[in-house]
Amino acid sequence: MVTVNTKKRILGQKKPFKLEDIWRIRTHLEIEGNLMELALLNLAIDCKLRSCDLLRLRVCDVSSSGIIMTRVLLTQSKTSRDVQFEITSKTQHALSQWLFVSQLSPQDF
Question: Which UniProt keywords are listed (predicted)?
Fold first, then answer.
């Protein structure tokens, strides 16, 4: 439920993106050449993690010897539960492009 408080701020859970919104954002990021944002968007959709867990991921969590993994196991910070998710080929491609261009080390976020 979304409510508005006295300071006109929206509180509560926001409405999820519609599929056409996601495609619009992806297309916009691809046209701009914004590899980092595209990779993070695709990874967020694949893993469905909370933002705190997504931003805590290191390069070594999703790749090994420069190859993006197809499946990742991660412990959530809020629940301390192990979560396994698959990385789609589209996300693998976006991640590998971003990692190649940015020259991130395995310990980087």
Answer: DNA recombination
